[in-house]
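2024-03-11 09:14:02 INFO queue: dequeued item DUF1907 domain-containing protein, len=326
2024-03-11 09:14:02 INFO validating residues
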Amino acid sequence: MKVSIYPRDPPSLLDLAEVIQRSLQFNFTEASVGVEQCPDLREEPFGLAAPGISGNPCIADIGGQPNLFPTPNFNAQYSLLELATDMQISPFGGSLIGAGAAPFQDIGHNAELAPNISWKPAGNHQKPDFSDHSTLEIRNNTRIIEVNDEKLPSCDGTSSTNCALMANIYGSNGQPGLVLKVKARGRIGDQNFTNCIRHGLRDTYGDSRPISLGGVFLLKKGKAKFHVMPDFPSKKDLPFRDREQLEKEWLTYHVFKAPIVCLTVFHSADPELLDLRMEHTHCFDAEGDKKGGHYHYDIQEDDFEVEYEAYLHPASTIYRIDRPAS
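2024-03-11 09:14:37 INFO prediction written
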């Protein structure tokens, strides 16, 4: 697979905090952003596979939507641990979180994926190797979100360490460290949580200084809209006629109440024209009630005032991996 590497030059966390807070205050009744020591994200309600999101922060955009539309590319199969190698993360310790398509090659059908995996050397192993899983102690908290034939969703763990078609991954050494702590409640504007942040960054830094962020946020209160991909259409129903058919007739849509954990990757700009997916967030239920999916936006109602809490970090490197032909 072709791997292209692009360095980023993010501002300081303090500068980013000021910009993000200013943007959120136009869209929410209350918002605050600070630079704090990251809590242990393995603990409830977040349930990540690593304690933090610091150390060698990077983002990879793998494959892409052309691998799904107009016809699925069944050759687009990926290993998360091989992707960690492509992202130059050490086998001596690291983690990946984000959003992508589930490994149809393992589970036998299409679904959503919320990658959430960490690793370290097994025992006292001196030469851990991503190509030899026996040398690694892998913690896999990844979720697969799918719908049955009646379009009822479910969300469960998986033993697979693979993905397919497309993925947007935030990688790091998984260490504790300083992060952006973002809080917001009571949406009054038109933008969802992630788009409000990235549009504020774009307005401040423009195309000349793209900012890419990854991490986790919690929908603490309220409810939000999600989609879940069903299984692939039958051969007779392919190719997809157009994107409207894919979005309006094929995808399934659901509204779920908080608390929901969301793994997110987003960019303020794409000046190198890498065909980046500008925002991608996949979510799972913090209380194990088997709900989740691809985040669209919260639903602000009198009885469901929304509230968010996020822990984010800027990436210092972007990897474009296996970019499909447009």
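2024-03-11 09:14:37 INFO annotate: Residues 13-25 form the longest helix (13 residues).
2024-03-11 09:14:38 INFO item closed
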